[in-house]
Amino acid sequence: MNISEHPNISVYGKIDGTQVHLIHLDNGILGCSVLTYGCILASLNVPDSSGGMTDVVLGYDSLEEYVSSSGRMGAVIGRYANRIKGGRFDLDHHPVQLSLNRGPDHIHGGFRGFDKRVWKISGCSDACVELSYTSKDGEEGYPGNMDVTVRYELIGPSLRISYRAVSDRDTVCNLTNHSYFNLSGGNGIGDHRITIRSGRYIEAGPEGIPTGSIREASGDTDLRGSRCLDGDPRYDLCYLLDPGDVCAVCRSDTTGIAMSVSIDMPAMQFYTADNLSDRIGKNGMPMGRHSGICFETQYPPDAPNHPEFGYRPLRKGEVYDHHATFSFSVRAGSDATPAYPS
């Protein structure tokens, strides 16, 4: 494929002499853009109740801002998403020590995880792009050379993200996307309503490291009924998902946009950006605390150290193959809170 001649691909900038490209996708219903830096979902334009389009993911206007700013906005996270206590786990009774990039712990793949790498375009069409990256043996402490591909595909009113990985040694793998969704296009999430299909979550300490206990959801942690995220919605919880295709539904009262999340993973980190610092995003939009919502579809944090979470390593030659689908509709009216499909 000749990238320089592809109508959907343009040069976005350079990092250390390496070109970073921006890929535009459109299927006549949704439109989105993806960066080769971090495999970032930079925009996602969705029809709203006014007849226009709303960009429902937060981000920046320039490559320099993506590189210099924290938050991993829109990026693919790996080799292991979320936290690993002490950056250490045993793999078949052999200790593995990862880099420590969050105090005494490891988070989101380390100092230069997949979110800070330039990916290659391995395929592109009007509504689909596939990006690839090879993570070398020992990178951030992880064993094995691992070939990773991520596919963004627009299918009708849905964005489907597919993750695939193969390693030449036994290792661990846990990939997710770290987009901050705002179905109103900005100005906070106080008008958002959320439902999550889960009656259990993983108890975590103040640094987000699991204690090993699995708690029954109750009170503010029970989101099986529709809940408005006004006030001070402090959520950074890993929910163990109940059976069923759709695991979460979110809706904006302002735009009428409803989003359902479908995954084939056992857990989802639900995060309301409580620790996101004040900054300026796309088109001069102020961002900060409670300006977006992350639906991080994944295995639980620190699962290699917790057999009770049911995680198993990625064995040599095995294929890690998982998918997440974000589907959109417009639901006008204050009583049109989205419900699970029957």
Give structural notes.
This protein is mainly β and 342 residues long. The protein has one domain (8-330): Beta-galactosidase, Chain A, domain 5 (Distorted Sandwich), CATH 2.70.98. The protein is built from one helix and 27 strands. It has one helix at residues 63-68, and strands spanning 9-15, 18-26, 31-35, 41-47, 53-55, 76-77, 83-84, 88-91, 94-97, 106-107, 120-124, 128-135, 146-155, 158-167, 176-177, 192-196, 200-204, 210-216, 227-228, 236-240, 246-252, 257-263, 267-271, 279-280, 286-287, 294-298, 319-330. A nine-stranded antiparallel β-sheet has the order 11-12-13-14-27-22-21-16-19, with no helix packed on it. Strands 1-2-3-4-5 form a five-stranded antiparallel β-sheet, with no helix packed on it. Strands 18-17-20-23-26 form a five-stranded antiparallel β-sheet, with no helix packed on it. The radius of gyration is 19 Å and the shape is globular.
Q: Give the CA-based shape.
A: globular
Which CATH class?
Mainly Beta
Strand order of the largest sheet: 11-12-13-14-27-22-21-16-19
Q: Output the number of helix runs.
A: 1
Structural class: mainly beta
- Oligomerization state of this entry? single chain
Which stretches are low in confidence, meaning pLDDT under 50 for 5 or more residues running?
334-342
Give the N-terminus to C-terminus distance in angstroms.
43 Å
Q: What fraction strand?
A: 35-45%
What CATH architecture label applies? Distorted Sandwich
Task: Determine the mean pLDDT.
Answer: 95
What does the largest sheet look like?
A: 9 strands, antiparallel
- Provide the number of structural domains: 1
The strand count comes to 27
Topology order in helix (H) and strand (E) letters: EEEEEHEEEEEEEEEEEEEEEEEEEEEE
CATH topology assignment:
Beta-galactosidase, Chain A, domain 5
Percent range for helical residues? under 10%
Q: In angstroms, what is the radius of gyration?
A: 19 Å
